[in-house]
Design a protein that fits this description.
Length: 452
């Protein structure tokens, strides 16, 4: 996974983060002092990567509060919890969602300041769509920079992609291309300026009204670091953008800062440019990016353990007969995988003779797929309170839920009946200490574990 550029320019950030995670794992006591020392190190690492100081302090504060105050999920050691919190914060810092562009017929306008990498990125995107089976056209709307048109024409030749150049002014060229281009994806390369001044804003607005682009993508060079946020916000306010591409990530240690800054601007980073060649473009996935920074193997093990702990908590809740309708629904699928519930219940001493089983219909848990689907609609139509506390659902609410979900009141009543019966049964079983171990506990654990 270690691409050369990545190891070279993000080496410091990567080493710093790895160090932080490793330090937590190696700590003897995890008291306030130790937590604060680790966080101070983290702050240094992030600030060196040009992450905005205010953001760094906000993150630190949240981590500290989470680690020192929050109740730790059962099954997790405090250290693992710390690592989990840190991981979540770092992933959040790098952005929330994975970026890419849709493979559909569309017009894309690339904007940005001089030298940000627009023309290069136009070529990269053209290649990206082309290898995915789309036809692509490039439009050379930069008439300001000398030889800008030739640069794009050369790129087009190299990629075997038509380049539209007809017209004198950027607006004319755009208009001609809108009229004539027949390709699936038409990418408009625009002219930049030294700054986002009134003239550039006017020109881009005009271009926007001619092109009516599906995507307006701002190209930001990574070496501007945390200034990425301000630029993204300004461009967005003046001309409206649908996404960001961070270029030149291969050439600066400020890449982490630029990505973090862009991700808080409110616009999504869709790709990163990592070299001068058309193939040097990567879809941007914050979690994968973080994985590369801190090493997949290490973090995966820790996160798995954390996930299991979460599942155990659910299992415990179910054993105690306390669970919401949503949890109930999620567990049915898992139970079905284990064979019929009655078979499992048979293994529990005392339960089958309690008479409880006789009250349950045959093949109790063999819920048909279409019924499951209906139940899903029903649950989706409930308010949060109703989901959490289904016992409180009154008849008038039942008819409202049925209407909202396109089902019949009988369907809603049936779901509620199932829920109540299972709850009652589990409460009985879980209440006895004898059941905390043995097959039932295993079952509860099992269906907790099976959660997606
Ligand atoms: P424009 O003025 O916005 O159109 O910028 P250009 O596309 O002409 O790029 C300006 C310079 O940056 C050129 O020398 C490109 O080769 C270089 N460049 C663009 N993107 C990248 C990138 O991701 N990595 C590197 N190393 N150089 C890039
Ligand atoms: Mg250019």
């Amino acid at each position: 996974m270690g691409a050369k550029w990545f190891d070279m320019v993000l080496d410091k950030l990567s080493a710093g983060l790895k160090d932080t995670f490793r330090r937590i794992a190696g700590l003897g006591v995890l008291d306030r002092e130790a937590v604060e020392a680790v966080i101070r190190d983290l702050q240094r690492t992030l600030i060196q990567a040009d992450v905005d100081v205010k953001m760094v302090f906000e993150i630190s504060k949240r981590i500290k509060e989470d680690v020192l105050k929050e109740k730790i999920p059962t099954g997790l050691t405090l250290k693992e919890h710390f690592i989990r919190v840190l991981y979540d914060e770092m992933a959040g810092l790098l952005g929330k969602e994975t970026g890419r562009l849709e493979l559909k017929k569309q017009r894309i306008l690339l904007i940005g300041l001089f030298g940000s990498g627009k023309t290069t990125t136009a070529g990269k995107l053209a290649r990206w769509f082309k290898v995915r089976g789309m036809t692509v056209g490039l439009v050379a709307c930069d008439t300001h920079r000398p030889a800008a048109r030739e640069q794009l024409e050369q790129l087009g030749k190299k990629l075997d992609v038509p380049v539209h150049t007809e017209g004198k002014k950027p607006e004319d060229i755009a208009r001609e291309a809108v009229k004539k281009a027949r390709e699936d994806v038409v990418i408009f390369d625009s002219a930049g300026r030294d700054a986002l001044d009134g003239e550039l804003a006017r020109e881009l607005k005009e271009m926007g009204s001619i092109i009516k682009p599906d995507e307006v993508i701002l190209v930001l060079p990574a070496d501007i670091g945390q200034a990425a946020r301000r630029q993204a916000e300004e461009f967005n306010k003046l001309v409206g953008i649908t996404g960001i591409i961070i270029s030149k990530l291969d050439g600066t240690a400020k890449g982490g800062g630029a990505l973090a800054a862009a991700s808080v601007s409110g616009s999504k980073v869709k790709f990163i440019g990592v070299g001068e060649k058309p193939e040097d473009l990567e879809e941007y996935d914050p979690k994968r990016f973080l994985g590369r920074l801190i090493g997949y193997g290490d973090i995966q093990g820790l996160l798995e353990k954390a996930k299991e702990a979460g599942a155990e908590k659910t299992a415990q809740k179910i054993m105690d007969g306390k669970f919401t309708l949503v949890e109930f629904y999620e567990q049915i699928g898992s139970l079905q995988k284990m064979g019929s519930l009655s078979k499992v219940m048979d293994m529990i001493p005392g339960l089958s003779s309690s008479g409880m089983m006789k009250k349950l219909p045959e093949n109790f848990m063999d819920v048909q797929e279409d019924k499951m689907k209906r139940w899903k609609f029903i649950i989706d139509s409930m308010t949060q309170k109703e989901k959490d506390d289904p016992d409180e659902i009154t008849p008038s609410r039942i008819s409202r839920i049925a209407k909202g979900s396109g089902t019949k009141p009988e369907d809603v009543r049936e779901l509620l009946k199932y829920y109540k019966q299972v709850k009652k049964m589990l409460k009985m079983a879980g209440g006895g200490k004898a059941f905390k171990r043995g097959p039932f506990a295993r079952m509860a654990k099992q269906f907790g574990m099976n959660m997606g």
